[in-house]
Amino acid sequence: MAIEISLSNTNGPIEFERGLLPDYNGPKLRGAIALSAKTNSGQFVIQELKTEEYSIRLSVVKFFKNITATGSLNTRGLYSFFLLKSGLRKEFKSIGKLHLRQDQYTCFFTEPTTCKASFERNIEFRALDIFYSPQFIEELLPYFPELKQVLNKIDSTVLPEKKCWMLPSMNEIIAQLLNCPYDDTTCAFYFDLKVRELLYQMLENAFKRKITDIYFTPWEVSKIHEARKILETYISKKPPSFRFLSRQIALNGLKLKTGFRQYFNMGMFEWLAEQKMQHARDLVLMTNKPIKAISQQVGYSRSTNFITAFRKRFGVTPRSLRN
Questions:
Q1: Residues 37 and 186 reside in one and the same domain
Q2: Which of 42, 46, 144, 305 suits 138 as a labelling partner, its CA being 20 to 30 A distant?
Q3: Could you give the CA distance from residue 323 to residue 310 in angstroms, rounded to a whole number?
Q4: Is residue 212 part of a domain?
Q5: Domain for residue 272, yes or no?
Q6: Is residue 3 part of a domain?
Protein backbone atom coordinates (compact mmCIF):
# COMPACT_ATOMS: atom_id res chain seq x y z
CA MET A 1 0.00 0.00 0.00
CA ALA A 2 1.19 3.51 -0.76
CA ILE A 3 -0.04 4.84 2.58
CA GLU A 4 1.82 2.56 4.97
CA ILE A 5 0.04 2.97 8.31
CA SER A 6 -0.03 -0.26 10.28
CA LEU A 7 -2.23 0.09 13.34
CA SER A 8 -1.03 -1.54 16.53
CA ASN A 9 -2.13 -1.62 20.14
CA THR A 10 -0.87 -2.82 23.47
CA ASN A 11 -1.49 -6.44 22.46
CA GLY A 12 0.66 -6.26 19.33
CA PRO A 13 -0.05 -5.69 15.62
CA ILE A 14 -3.59 -6.11 14.32
CA GLU A 15 -3.98 -8.89 11.75
CA PHE A 16 -6.16 -7.84 8.83
CA GLU A 17 -8.10 -10.11 6.49
CA ARG A 18 -9.24 -9.43 2.91
CA GLY A 19 -12.81 -8.16 2.53
CA LEU A 20 -15.30 -6.11 4.53
CA LEU A 21 -16.73 -7.11 7.91
CA PRO A 22 -20.00 -9.06 7.52
CA ASP A 23 -22.03 -6.35 9.30
CA TYR A 24 -20.30 -3.39 7.62
CA ASN A 25 -22.80 -0.87 6.20
CA GLY A 26 -20.60 2.20 5.76
CA PRO A 27 -19.36 3.90 2.58
CA LYS A 28 -17.53 1.83 -0.02
CA LEU A 29 -14.69 2.81 -2.33
CA ARG A 30 -15.36 1.16 -5.68
CA GLY A 31 -12.49 -0.93 -7.02
CA ALA A 32 -10.52 -0.71 -3.77
CA ILE A 33 -8.78 -3.50 -1.87
CA ALA A 34 -10.65 -3.96 1.41
CA LEU A 35 -8.99 -5.13 4.64
CA SER A 36 -10.82 -5.61 7.92
CA ALA A 37 -10.30 -6.87 11.45
CA LYS A 38 -12.33 -7.29 14.62
CA THR A 39 -10.55 -7.83 17.92
CA ASN A 40 -11.16 -7.28 21.63
CA SER A 41 -9.70 -3.80 21.14
CA GLY A 42 -11.87 -2.63 18.24
CA GLN A 43 -13.05 -3.12 14.69
CA PHE A 44 -11.40 -1.81 11.55
CA VAL A 45 -12.32 -1.51 7.89
CA ILE A 46 -9.72 -0.03 5.53
CA GLN A 47 -10.29 0.31 1.78
CA GLU A 48 -7.48 1.47 -0.49
CA LEU A 49 -7.22 2.17 -4.18
CA LYS A 50 -3.65 2.48 -5.47
CA THR A 51 -2.20 3.81 -8.72
CA GLU A 52 1.36 4.77 -9.68
CA GLU A 53 0.65 8.45 -9.04
CA TYR A 54 -1.71 8.48 -6.08
CA SER A 55 -3.60 6.31 -3.63
CA ILE A 56 -6.94 6.76 -1.84
CA ARG A 57 -7.63 5.22 1.55
CA LEU A 58 -10.96 5.16 3.40
CA SER A 59 -10.69 4.17 7.07
CA VAL A 60 -13.63 3.34 9.33
CA VAL A 61 -12.36 2.53 12.82
CA LYS A 62 -13.99 2.02 16.20
CA PHE A 63 -12.07 1.13 19.36
CA PHE A 64 -13.68 -0.42 22.42
CA LYS A 65 -11.28 1.35 24.79
CA ASN A 66 -9.13 4.47 24.82
CA ILE A 67 -6.01 3.63 22.85
CA THR A 68 -3.01 5.04 21.01
CA ALA A 69 -2.22 3.51 17.62
CA THR A 70 1.22 3.78 16.02
CA GLY A 71 2.29 3.55 12.41
CA SER A 72 4.36 5.16 9.68
CA LEU A 73 4.29 6.95 6.35
CA ASN A 74 6.91 5.17 4.28
CA THR A 75 6.77 7.09 1.01
CA ARG A 76 7.89 10.63 0.22
CA GLY A 77 5.05 12.75 -1.09
CA LEU A 78 1.99 14.87 -0.34
CA TYR A 79 -0.50 13.49 2.20
CA SER A 80 -4.01 14.86 2.72
CA PHE A 81 -6.32 13.77 5.55
CA PHE A 82 -10.05 14.55 5.48
CA LEU A 83 -11.85 13.83 8.74
CA LEU A 84 -15.38 12.68 7.89
CA LYS A 85 -16.60 11.64 11.34
CA SER A 86 -15.54 12.36 14.95
CA GLY A 87 -12.31 14.04 16.08
CA LEU A 88 -8.72 12.85 16.03
CA ARG A 89 -5.38 13.73 17.58
CA LYS A 90 -2.31 12.75 15.57
CA GLU A 91 1.38 13.31 15.97
CA PHE A 92 3.93 12.97 13.15
CA LYS A 93 7.64 13.03 13.85
CA SER A 94 8.20 15.27 10.82
CA ILE A 95 5.45 17.90 11.32
CA GLY A 96 4.41 17.65 14.97
CA LYS A 97 0.94 17.44 16.56
CA LEU A 98 -2.40 17.79 14.78
CA HIS A 99 -5.88 17.98 16.27
CA LEU A 100 -8.54 17.61 13.59
CA ARG A 101 -12.26 18.03 14.12
CA GLN A 102 -14.97 16.51 11.99
CA ASP A 103 -15.14 18.23 8.55
CA GLN A 104 -11.58 19.54 8.83
CA TYR A 105 -8.63 18.54 6.68
CA THR A 106 -4.88 18.91 6.62
CA CYS A 107 -2.37 18.58 3.81
CA PHE A 108 1.41 18.24 4.08
CA PHE A 109 4.47 17.18 2.11
CA THR A 110 6.87 14.94 4.01
CA GLU A 111 9.71 12.48 3.84
CA PRO A 112 9.03 9.04 5.38
CA THR A 113 8.08 9.49 9.04
CA THR A 114 6.50 7.75 12.02
CA CYS A 115 3.16 8.73 13.52
CA LYS A 116 0.73 7.93 16.29
CA ALA A 117 -2.96 8.69 16.85
CA SER A 118 -5.19 8.77 19.93
CA PHE A 119 -8.68 7.26 19.75
CA GLU A 120 -11.53 7.52 22.25
CA ARG A 121 -13.45 4.37 23.05
CA ASN A 122 -16.81 3.52 21.45
CA ILE A 123 -16.64 6.40 18.96
CA GLU A 124 -16.59 5.58 15.26
CA PHE A 125 -13.91 7.43 13.33
CA ARG A 126 -13.99 7.90 9.55
CA ALA A 127 -11.31 9.48 7.41
CA LEU A 128 -10.38 9.74 3.77
CA ASP A 129 -6.63 9.92 3.09
CA ILE A 130 -5.18 10.70 -0.32
CA PHE A 131 -1.48 10.36 -1.11
CA TYR A 132 0.05 12.17 -4.13
CA SER A 133 3.49 11.22 -5.45
CA PRO A 134 6.13 13.92 -6.13
CA GLN A 135 5.80 13.17 -9.86
CA PHE A 136 2.09 13.85 -9.64
CA ILE A 137 2.71 17.14 -7.82
CA GLU A 138 5.20 18.26 -10.47
CA GLU A 139 2.35 18.31 -13.03
CA LEU A 140 0.92 21.33 -11.20
CA LEU A 141 4.11 23.41 -11.08
CA PRO A 142 2.99 25.62 -14.01
CA TYR A 143 -0.13 26.56 -12.04
CA PHE A 144 1.35 26.68 -8.54
CA PRO A 145 5.05 27.66 -8.81
CA GLU A 146 5.20 27.73 -4.99
CA LEU A 147 5.27 23.94 -5.13
CA LYS A 148 8.84 23.98 -6.41
CA GLN A 149 10.06 25.24 -3.05
CA VAL A 150 7.98 22.56 -1.31
CA LEU A 151 9.48 19.78 -3.43
CA ASN A 152 13.03 21.03 -2.91
CA LYS A 153 12.81 21.44 0.87
CA ILE A 154 14.55 18.86 3.02
CA ASP A 155 12.11 19.17 5.92
CA SER A 156 8.32 18.80 5.81
CA THR A 157 5.79 21.47 4.81
CA VAL A 158 2.16 21.85 5.90
CA LEU A 159 -0.16 23.42 3.30
CA PRO A 160 -1.52 25.76 4.59
CA GLU A 161 0.05 26.18 8.00
CA LYS A 162 -3.29 26.11 9.83
CA LYS A 163 -6.02 23.47 9.74
CA CYS A 164 -8.83 24.08 7.28
CA TRP A 165 -12.52 23.37 7.15
CA MET A 166 -13.66 21.53 4.07
CA LEU A 167 -15.37 23.66 1.47
CA PRO A 168 -18.80 22.53 0.18
CA SER A 169 -17.12 21.76 -3.14
CA MET A 170 -14.62 19.50 -1.34
CA ASN A 171 -17.45 17.68 0.42
CA GLU A 172 -19.10 17.17 -2.95
CA ILE A 173 -15.95 15.68 -4.51
CA ILE A 174 -15.52 13.32 -1.56
CA ALA A 175 -19.17 12.25 -1.86
CA GLN A 176 -18.57 11.56 -5.55
CA LEU A 177 -15.51 9.44 -4.75
CA LEU A 178 -17.47 7.38 -2.22
CA ASN A 179 -20.55 7.02 -4.42
CA CYS A 180 -18.98 6.44 -7.83
CA PRO A 181 -21.80 5.43 -10.23
CA TYR A 182 -19.54 3.85 -12.89
CA ASP A 183 -18.12 0.39 -13.47
CA ASP A 184 -14.53 -0.47 -12.51
CA THR A 185 -13.07 0.48 -15.91
CA THR A 186 -14.72 3.90 -16.13
CA CYS A 187 -14.30 4.40 -12.38
CA ALA A 188 -10.49 4.57 -12.70
CA PHE A 189 -10.73 7.50 -15.13
CA TYR A 190 -13.36 9.16 -12.92
CA PHE A 191 -11.11 8.91 -9.85
CA ASP A 192 -8.19 10.37 -11.82
CA LEU A 193 -10.27 13.47 -12.46
CA LYS A 194 -11.63 13.78 -8.93
CA VAL A 195 -8.33 13.45 -7.05
CA ARG A 196 -6.86 16.13 -9.31
CA GLU A 197 -9.84 18.39 -8.71
CA LEU A 198 -9.53 17.94 -4.95
CA LEU A 199 -5.79 18.60 -5.01
CA TYR A 200 -6.30 21.76 -7.05
CA GLN A 201 -8.77 23.09 -4.48
CA MET A 202 -6.41 22.32 -1.58
CA LEU A 203 -3.53 24.12 -3.30
CA GLU A 204 -5.75 27.04 -4.24
CA ASN A 205 -6.72 27.29 -0.59
CA ALA A 206 -3.10 27.04 0.53
CA PHE A 207 -1.40 29.52 -1.79
CA LYS A 208 -4.12 32.05 -2.55
CA ARG A 209 -5.72 32.56 0.83
CA LYS A 210 -7.08 36.05 1.47
CA ILE A 211 -4.79 38.19 3.60
CA THR A 212 -7.70 40.14 5.11
CA ASP A 213 -8.46 37.57 7.82
CA ILE A 214 -9.51 39.19 11.10
CA TYR A 215 -7.79 38.20 14.33
CA PHE A 216 -9.94 36.47 16.96
CA THR A 217 -8.99 35.75 20.54
CA PRO A 218 -8.97 32.10 21.71
CA TRP A 219 -12.19 32.80 23.63
CA GLU A 220 -13.88 34.21 20.53
CA VAL A 221 -12.73 31.23 18.46
CA SER A 222 -14.22 28.86 21.05
CA LYS A 223 -17.52 30.75 20.84
CA ILE A 224 -17.56 30.50 17.05
CA HIS A 225 -17.09 26.74 17.33
CA GLU A 226 -19.82 26.65 19.97
CA ALA A 227 -22.19 28.32 17.52
CA ARG A 228 -21.41 25.62 14.96
CA LYS A 229 -22.19 22.88 17.48
CA ILE A 230 -25.51 24.55 18.30
CA LEU A 231 -26.39 24.76 14.61
CA GLU A 232 -25.68 21.03 14.27
CA THR A 233 -28.64 20.38 16.58
CA TYR A 234 -30.96 22.11 14.09
CA ILE A 235 -30.44 19.66 11.21
CA SER A 236 -34.01 18.39 11.61
CA LYS A 237 -35.78 21.60 12.58
CA LYS A 238 -36.16 25.27 11.78
CA PRO A 239 -32.88 27.16 12.38
CA PRO A 240 -32.60 29.77 15.14
CA SER A 241 -32.43 33.45 14.32
CA PHE A 242 -29.04 35.09 14.02
CA ARG A 243 -29.81 37.35 17.00
CA PHE A 244 -30.82 34.38 19.17
CA LEU A 245 -27.62 32.50 18.33
CA SER A 246 -25.45 35.54 19.00
CA ARG A 247 -27.04 36.06 22.41
CA GLN A 248 -26.87 32.39 23.30
CA ILE A 249 -23.08 32.26 22.92
CA ALA A 250 -22.55 35.83 24.21
CA LEU A 251 -20.55 36.98 21.19
CA ASN A 252 -20.89 40.20 19.22
CA GLY A 253 -23.03 39.64 16.12
CA LEU A 254 -20.46 41.05 13.69
CA LYS A 255 -17.69 38.92 15.21
CA LEU A 256 -19.87 35.82 14.98
CA LYS A 257 -20.87 36.45 11.38
CA THR A 258 -17.37 37.33 10.21
CA GLY A 259 -15.65 34.64 12.25
CA PHE A 260 -17.96 31.87 11.13
CA ARG A 261 -17.29 32.66 7.49
CA GLN A 262 -13.55 32.97 8.12
CA TYR A 263 -13.25 29.63 9.92
CA PHE A 264 -15.82 27.58 7.99
CA ASN A 265 -15.60 29.22 4.55
CA MET A 266 -19.32 30.08 4.37
CA GLY A 267 -22.14 31.85 6.19
CA MET A 268 -23.88 30.17 9.11
CA PHE A 269 -27.19 29.42 7.45
CA GLU A 270 -25.52 28.50 4.20
CA TRP A 271 -23.46 26.03 6.25
CA LEU A 272 -26.57 24.62 7.94
CA ALA A 273 -28.37 24.21 4.60
CA GLU A 274 -25.34 22.33 3.27
CA GLN A 275 -25.32 20.02 6.32
CA LYS A 276 -29.01 19.29 5.83
CA MET A 277 -28.45 18.33 2.20
CA GLN A 278 -25.40 16.18 2.91
CA HIS A 279 -27.26 14.38 5.70
CA ALA A 280 -30.26 13.88 3.41
CA ARG A 281 -28.02 12.45 0.71
CA ASP A 282 -26.52 9.96 3.18
CA LEU A 283 -30.02 8.88 4.24
CA VAL A 284 -31.09 8.44 0.60
CA LEU A 285 -28.05 6.33 -0.27
CA MET A 286 -27.58 4.35 2.93
CA THR A 287 -31.14 3.72 4.19
CA ASN A 288 -34.50 2.57 2.82
CA LYS A 289 -36.44 5.38 4.47
CA PRO A 290 -39.22 6.94 2.35
CA ILE A 291 -38.32 10.26 0.73
CA LYS A 292 -41.10 11.97 2.70
CA ALA A 293 -39.63 10.72 5.99
CA ILE A 294 -36.15 11.91 4.98
CA SER A 295 -37.47 15.35 4.05
CA GLN A 296 -39.03 15.68 7.51
CA GLN A 297 -35.86 14.44 9.17
CA VAL A 298 -33.85 17.31 7.67
CA GLY A 299 -36.45 19.95 8.54
CA TYR A 300 -38.67 20.16 5.44
CA SER A 301 -42.41 20.06 6.19
CA ARG A 302 -43.20 19.59 2.49
CA SER A 303 -41.46 16.88 0.51
CA THR A 304 -41.91 18.88 -2.72
CA ASN A 305 -39.77 21.71 -1.30
CA PHE A 306 -37.18 19.17 -0.18
CA ILE A 307 -37.03 17.52 -3.61
CA THR A 308 -36.60 20.93 -5.27
CA ALA A 309 -33.75 21.87 -2.90
CA PHE A 310 -32.14 18.45 -3.32
CA ARG A 311 -32.24 18.68 -7.12
CA LYS A 312 -30.80 22.19 -7.01
CA ARG A 313 -27.91 21.02 -4.80
CA PHE A 314 -27.05 17.69 -6.45
CA GLY A 315 -28.54 17.92 -9.93
CA VAL A 316 -30.83 14.90 -9.46
CA THR A 317 -33.92 14.06 -7.41
CA PRO A 318 -33.57 11.88 -4.30
CA ARG A 319 -35.43 9.02 -6.01
CA SER A 320 -33.20 9.19 -9.09
CA LEU A 321 -30.09 9.08 -6.89
CA ARG A 322 -31.40 6.02 -5.07
CA ASN A 323 -32.23 4.23 -8.30
A1: yes
A2: 46
A3: 15
A4: no
A5: yes
A6: no
User: Is residue 213 situated within a structural domain?
Assistant: no
Q: How many CB atoms lie within 10 A of CB 223?
A: 20
**Distance set, CA 169 to CA 85, 225, 317 (Å):** 18, 21, 19
Mean pLDDT of all residues in the chain? 85
CA 285/CA 282 separation, integer angstroms: 5
Predicted TM-score of the model (pTM): 0.72
Give the whole-angstrom CA distance, residue 140 versus residue 148.
10
Query: Number of folded domains in the chain?
Result: 2
Q: What is the CATH number of the domain that holds 281?
A: 1.10.10.60
How would DSSP label each residue in 164-190?
EEPPHHHHHHHHHHHT--S-HHHHHHH
Q: How far is CA 198 from CA 118, 173, 215, in A?
A: 27, 7, 28
Asked whether residue 32 carries a pLDDT value surpassing 80, the answer given is yes
Nearest CA to 71 out of 129, 147, 18, 121 is that of 129
